[in-house]
Design goal:
The complex is a heterodimer. By secondary structure, chain A is mostly helical. Chain A has five helices and no strands. In chain B, helix 1 packs antiparallel against helix 2 and helix 2 runs antiparallel to helix 3. The chains are: A mainly alpha, B mainly alpha.
């Protein structure tokens, strides 16, 4: 079951690897047709504004260049390891056959992970999906929509009682107060 | 059982299974291999290799469900290669990300009160 889910996602990722030239201009802005968006909440006090320059500009930010570098090094490194295991396998080490196929699989996984992450970032910056950072005012960095909606009470089915909501608001306030103490500087 | 809880369960099972097998590999298999008996390390190594692929896929699916950022996701994925680290990271991910996400979905009959 889990394999099916992943393979489906991989197909999407293959076609969704963004090329900077194909990115629409930032003037396209958030599309109202994408349904109710929680990103209309408090905007992050820090971080790049979606409307400053072309959308693909974030790809050349230092932190993203770091991710690209890590991606390239790990991809070629894992292919090299697969090649190394292949030569070991050819020279009689039967165990190496397993690793001969495993390393390229990991290399492919790195590419898929990288492509889907970039695709998500493009979607966020075009306003197609909610920005997890929009909740940064309420949440410790690293928390995403799935957690933020708890605090904001966005996706509860109406079965959450008032007392629990008040408690969640209390937690959100505590989070905001201690946000910068030992903060996790998540890369995004 | 909803999709997030199912993903959490699959991740936890794989984190513990992979972690135990990796501990066997590193603290039983490798010493035996150094002592000249590589059979255990070879067999357990292949088992860990296969389990780690499954762990990788499940951990990644969970990170998508929770919409984690890059860094916690990478830490979660790589934890399956470092002995004992799967357990530590599983605790950290649970406390930091899974518990808040599940709190929205299961209206607790007895919500925990402060103080």
């Amino acid at each position: 079951m889990s394999f099916g889910v992943t393979l489906h996602g991989m197909e999407n990722a293959g076609t969704a690897a963004p090329s900077p030239g194909a990115v629409p201009s930032p003037s396209s802005g958030p599309s109202p047709s994408s349904g109710p968006s929680p990103s209309s909440g408090p905007s992050p006090s820090s971080g790049p504004s979606p409307s400053s320059g072309p959308v693909w500009r974030f790809l050349i930010q230092p932190r993203w260049l770091g991710w690209h570098l890590l991606m390239v090094v790990s991809f070629w490194g894992m292919l090299w390891l697969g090649d190394w295991q292949f030569h070991r396998a050819l020279s009689g080490n039967a165990l190496s056959w397993a690793y001969t196929f495993e390393w390229p699989l990991f290399a492919g996984f790195a590419v898929v992970f990288w492509a889907k992450t970039i695709r998500d970032e493009f979607r966020i910056r075009r306003g197609e999906i909610a920005d997890p950072r929009a909740m940064a005012a309420q949440l410790p960095a690293g928390m995403g929509i799935a957690q933020a909606s708890v605090v904001a009470g966005l996706d509860d089915g109406g079965d959450e009682d008032e007392e629990l909501s008040a408690y969640n608001a209390y937690l959100a306030r505590l989070n905001a107060e201690v946000k910068d103490h030992g903060r996790w500087h998540g890369l995004r | 059982m909803n999709v997030v809880k199912a993903a959490v369960l699959r991740y936890r099972v794989m984190a513990y299974v992979t972690g135990v097998v990796l501990i066997v590999l590193c603290f039983v298999g490798i010493p035996l291999q150094v002592a000249g008996k590589p059979a255990v390390a070879n067999d357990v190594g292949v088992v860990h290799g296969i389990l780690y692929i499954i762990y990788l896929i499940n951990a990644w699916i969970l990170s998508r469900k929770l919409k984690l950022e890059n860094k916690p996701t990478v830490i979660m994925l790589l934890a399956g290669t470092v002995p004992i680290m799967t357990f530590i990271v599983e605790r950290w991910i649970s406390r930091r990300f899974i518990a808040p996400a599940l709190a929205s979905q299961v209206p607790a009959p007895e919500p925990v009160r402060p103080g």
